[in-house]
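Note to self: user wants both folds in one dump. Writing first protein now.
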Amino acid sequence: MFSKFTSILQHAVEALAPSLPLQEDFVYHWKGITHYYIETSDDKAPVTDTNIPSHLEQMLDILTQEEAERESGETGPCMEYLLHHKILETLYTLGKADCPPGMKQQVLTFYTKLLAHIRQPLLPHINVHRPVQKLIRLCGEVLAAPTENEEIQFLCIVCAKLKQDPYLVNFFLENKSKRPEVKSSAAAEGGKESVLAPDTGQSQADHPGEPQAAAAAATSSPAANNNNTNNYNLVTSLLNLTKSPDGRIVVKACEGLMLLVSLPEPAAAKCLTENTELCELLTDRLVSFYKALPPSMDPLDIETVESVNWGLDVYNLKEDAAVFTGKRALISFLSWLDYCDQLIKEAQKSAAAVMAKAVRERFFVSVMEPQLMQTSEVGILTSTALLNRIIRQVTSEALLQEIVYFLLGEDKEAETPATIAQNPLRHRLIEHCDHLSDEISIMTLRLFEQLIQKPNQHILHSLVLRNLEERNYLENKPQEEREEREPLENGQPHDAVDLEEDPLFGDDLSPDSRLSGSDWLGSSPQHSPDHSKSDGKTEVHKIVNSFLCLVPDEAKSSYHVEGTGYDTYLRDAHRQFRDFCGVCQRWDWRGSPKPLEKCNLDMPFFEGHFLKVLFDRMGRILDQPYDVNLQVTAVLSKLSLLPHPHLHEYLLDPYISLAPGCRSLFSVIVRVVGDLMLRIHRIPDFTPKLLLVRKRLLGLEPEGVTYVLTDGISHLSFELTSETPSLSLFLSSQRGPQYAAGRCHCA
């Protein structure tokens, strides 16, 4: 009661007394704090029962007022007094001793407000950054401490100041071998003596107001030593606070780390990744959240759960459990993954690479790879769906690169049948595209579809392009034969096959008239001499018509339903192609194929494991479930949209002369159409049944059990662009079931 009465009396005196000059007023309040420790014997009373909070608040107000009255950058006498008399050092010592109880909280608040309110740069002063560094060490020492809120506010304002002037971070990289031992036993016993002899860690000769003081601090900066024995206490304290049970403290600590990793100073980036536990925090928590997921989850739940930005996930356990089991665990995992992704995305380049590699080794290799390599179908399906969601969510280049290397390996040489199993995980994933389980096949195909759309050149090179570099899928003819110009007949070579007159589309479809395997490959039209025409328009239309003519009229149904032809979604195809061109623009792909004289056409051609599986699946399109076929064509369409000349030539040009034993997308479709023609004539009333199935898929007819559509190819559609003579295959899956038609089975 007496202390409260004294405080009231003091305020009354201050209000009635004439105003003092700012410096005298500042010194008065500081002496009011020091006299407390000299005169007071009861050091157990909480600080809130003393005048100390009021004095500290008045000191801050005076410093703020002084700066407002002076020109920008000019240091006033009050600030000079604070620096010269090492007031921050003394306050640190009192805060560490927490004398009186609650003093640490008051000191943290004073430091925070001082750094936040004073516009002139304070951290370069040695009598500021040294006590700040010492106070940083006190933060995060005890979890759930009563000062946690003040600690995180203080650390975040320091991070914000370093973000404004990144070089200052070098003052906070403390050399372990030169770290001064903090001796504050006197403060711990009572704190009175420490007011008179504060623990400053420096000689009395240092003058904080002089420019050479800051220069000396810079010279003694541990970053200048360029060794691996630096402590990054600011990061360590933030890492400790990320373990707080208070979610708000955790989010603020994560925000502080986000600011620190983005600093461009190489020494700080190196210290961050080598001398702190940041990488361990990221990966250990990611592993912990992943292992908390249920062993089996519905892939649809994984795919459709709402996206959650880290730190913003508000949840209700009862509501989440009612939606599907494991939703809360899944959101927690995806939220932390988002934080890791954003942290790596914002990080300095070398630090980002180290953190991404740590995530790859400690999470993907150690935890996810065994899940993807297991034999349990339920486990494979769940882990593949989770991997697909991870790839969809990741946006940082460094983390995406490490995920790609984890999945596909780092090999850049062309594949051979003997080398496709060298990377077990890559081999297993591609094999899963042709798994006995249709669900696993569909999910793995979706995974690769997601990969193809990511802005990473190695994905496309590893899966497809490295096998097409030498263009050895072309028939190796002598140079003079390649240069011959044959006479044209109706714009085509005289020996080119007219698809409309091909035996494939004739009336005689008996088994005897079916072409053999070699005949199917040879039925492709010959290479047209005007193939490399400058504007490319004629050739593109010829290619489009070649594909469209593959399917005979009796197997088509689009013209029976208005607005369902291939031309109705060319606009969407143009948009997707432009998007892909924007992604691939920085990869410097050639606008025209590699000259044949520079290609090694003698090297045996192998389309690669990935295209082999896709072509095998495409070849069985009439005998596979509808959903599988849609996903196969979706992946092929994404590949065909890529603006690479070799990919367009190999996938989309039916006029190229293939090397013996090679197959292309066109040759695979030719075989499928031949089989389709044979089956059509075994189904009575095929065309009405096909039309009925189409209308049911469009929702124009009620569902029935009479027929099942398995998929097909009647609407192979293409995108025509004005920028390039190549064209992009745009298959039916892009517009849903209504753009796929095939054969019907009698139930």
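First done. Writing the second protein, which came from a different request thread.
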Amino acid sequence: MLQDRARATSHDSELEEDAPGLLWRETFRQFVDIKANGPSSTGADLCLHGFSHVYGLPEHADSLQLRDTRDGEPYRLYNLDVFAYDLYSRFGLYGSVPLLVAHKVDRTLGVFWLNASETFVNIHYSPTDHEDEQTPPVKRRRLQPQTDVHWLSESGVIDCVVLLGPSPQQLFSQYAQLTGYQALPPLFALGYHQCRWNYDDEADVKAVDAGFDHHNIPYDVIWLDIEHTDGKRYFTWDPVHFPDPAGLQRHLEKKKRKLVVISDPHIKADPDWSLYCEARDGGHFVKDREGQLYHGSCWPGESCYLDFSSPATRAWYSRCFTLEKYKGTTPSLFVWNDMNEPSVFDGPEQTMPKDAVHYGGWEHRELHNLYGFYQHMATVEGLITRSGGSERPFVLSRSFFAGSQRLGAVWTGDNVASWGYLKISIPMLLSLSVAGIVFCGADVGGFIRDPDPELLVRWYQAAALQPFFRGHSANVTKRREPWLFGDKVTAAIRTVIQQRYCLLPYWYTLFYQAHTSGLPPLRPLWVEFSQDQSTFTVDNQYMIGGALLACPVTEPGLQEVKVSLPGSGEIWYDVHSAKVHKGGETLSLPVTLDTVPLFQRGGSVVCRSTVSGSCTAELQQLPLSITVALNPQGAADGELYLDDGHSFSYRDRKAFCLRRFSMLSGRLLCHAASEEGTFDCDTVVHSVTFLGVKSKPSTVTVHVSGEDLHDTYTYSQLSNCGGQGKLCTPFLFNTRC
């Protein structure tokens, strides 16, 4: 299956003799890179026999299936700050995960190339037919497909792991065992986040917060960008516009909402600022090749950059988040790490020179793609330490590497308010999910420029069905709170955000599965339908867990969309109309501005909250509605995970509840899926809806605590369901999970 040819070059004596300075010194525009240890490279060629579809290698604004690179540039893994990045490009963006996933009908395979230096990946697909075009098709010899993959990194050693699957689920588990499982986020992090560069002052924040309540739109977190600080000095507050930050946080906390502030890795070079002096005197900054402090330009102007590769620097940085040191903060404040590729406005490719020097004498070229990962790590540790180890952190990072899933969430950076960027966000998030970075999202509406109302509504509809859900916009754009575009737009956005909140029990369960098994909540169709070759290139629709199929509308003015419903033996139910459709077919679905194409798979059970509430803190008290979608055999199953939503008690004291719902032979059973859980759950079930019931039942019996109770129900037969119907049983009493 696998052949490789590895090579590493160091000092080429012949070239050195002829031109001794050429290999040790490289010039890029006005920048000079001195290679103190000499030139080097590390590479390997791998032949993946039998495979003709490969994925992964984020982050790139490109299709889900990686393209053949013979017609242009290789895929580049080099973390960079790229404003309004090009679409369908192999150019490196904010993060890098050197994991390539190959899939065919009977096997899924992964190749993990552990190297944090600049890396290029070339991909060559071999045709399955004989290459001689003169040969008649009937006489062409059928060739075994294969994909050739060439890795080339600037430095490091060959550290390559092949993950053998053979199923997609086993591959994800193997990769999680290698690099870490997704951190279980606090429940509020799965709600809606409202952000802007920048909300003007405390009154502005309170007005936006009140606007959500006034318009009955749930949300959980409001964010502050760089302008909240005193002169772009992180860990400070603007004394005029944010004079009482702790009071602002308490105001939000009364409604069970949170505040997120930005904290970038550059520190303003201000000898009159105590934090800068503390970092300088403690040896916490990156040095240049001459051994002096490295200086670069970013938001504050002249800045120094923290050396997060140093354990001592990470520990010092973590302590900066304590309530005593970070004045004006409370336990309801969380953090956003931005510009951590790192971004250097006056650096080569707007990043740090490769010959800058880190802890232990390592050149920046050796660990460039790990820089943001290390800041993310230090920030997460700081928030955990702040709570005495009891509370789960939330930290969003723009830069990432393999293993960042252990720390928190990422997003796709400075996107643009255009239909093309909405469309590309889906394969970008799927590529991240396949590579283990599953808590991911794209800025709703586009960070740059102003979306028209239709684009904004469609973006909210798509993002509400993706893991990280945040609206964000640049300071030069018009304000775009959801109620600023007229009643029709407000109503459409309100509806999808409320639907997101109602679906949070399902989302939270999916994140528990990611945390324990490595399964991504967002999945390409081929993950669930691994033998259906028609799904291998689909990247405009996706599975949410194993139960829901989403096909967001990503083009303007459409009156109809084509939805591929995979699985020839499957049944799919339209979530909104309950109409049933056969798998293995393409559905032409009429759409209006309010239409969000979403289907539940036959054989699944999905738990929802009956109402959305105003934030996630209310979900624990809200009753559940359960939708049981029957497969052709009349069976279905699903899970529900519950805990306190914020602490590590689920881990340290087994304070969680995991229930399994199983439908078989006309009986729906709810039983413990884990014997470990000790969470005393007061969640009640309000109603159960059965889709695909073949005939009207004579009676419905609910068995609770040893007692049989006959319950009322409604039954409706759908016109296109071949005699099948919808049965809804509203429980008139509390049924504990």
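Dump finished. Worth passing along: The chain is about 20% helix and 25% strand.
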